[in-house]
Amino acid sequence: MNGRVRPKLASLSDFQFGAVATETIEDVLLHLAQQNEQAVQEAAGRMGSFRETRIVEFVFLLSEQWCLEKSVSYQAVEILERFMVKQAENICRQATTQLREKTEPQNWRALKEQLFNKFILRLVSCVQLASKLSFHYKIISNITVLNFLQALGYIHTKEELLESELDVLKSLNFQINLPTPLAYVEMLLEVLGYNGCSVPATRLHATCLTLLDLVYLLHEPVYESLLRASIENSTPSQLQGERRFHAVGSGNHCSKCFHPKP
After folding, report:
1. How far apart are CA 104 and CA 43, in angstroms?
2. Per-residue pLDDT tens for 17-47?
3. All residues at 6 or more sequence positions from 59 whose CB lies less than 8 Å from its CB, including other chains
4. Which of 34, 82, 119, 197 could be cross-linked to 192 through a Cys-Cys bond (beta carbons 3.0 to 4.6 Å apart)?
5. Does 1.10.472.10 match the CATH number of domain 49-176?
6. What is the pTM of this model?
């Protein structure tokens, strides 16, 4: 950080649970359940392909270096994956069109190299976009980003940085403010704040952040382990995995877990 004092991140004392009106909690629970069901129904089979541990770790370390909140890290991973899936879908669509129309195929190796060479730039753009969504007090300037990229050996201009952010936004139809698992966790902690819990919700919040980090870093093995346990089969088929994945999203009943204090 070049000797500068890093701003202090939010502490446990900054969080307070059990203070939101009961009607608001019920409305938010229902809204989150509906969003989750819609997200599961629209999820592509390639979701999860760009959550390799080293990619997620890079995002986490970069967010920590820039003193961003944990929510920004999770949001950046979600944006990056959705963007990369869109890129993969576009390539497949172009290939299918060319085969059908029997046109001259593109140089796929060159296209792959182009995507590879811009991957770090896209990743950084996703972190920037996520930080802007969080309304964080610490703004990541373009100069900071360009200096970081230059330290890694990537030379870009401010114009290229802005174009990269715009490419991500256009590819996702400007729909990047999607709830992360943290939104569901914090909402359930709010419910615990009302329903009563032997452990303070603020302490549980810190534990949940650690567990969420692990789930993001070890996405594939965690999911596979949960899948095998849920269907009681050590070697689940791809069809079983897809069916189970879609089944977990139909949870509009989640608001029933909320029992406000009398």
Report:
1. 32
2. 666 677 787 888 888 888 777 777 766 555 6
3. 73, 76, 77, 80, 123, 126, 127
4. 197
5. yes
6. 0.76
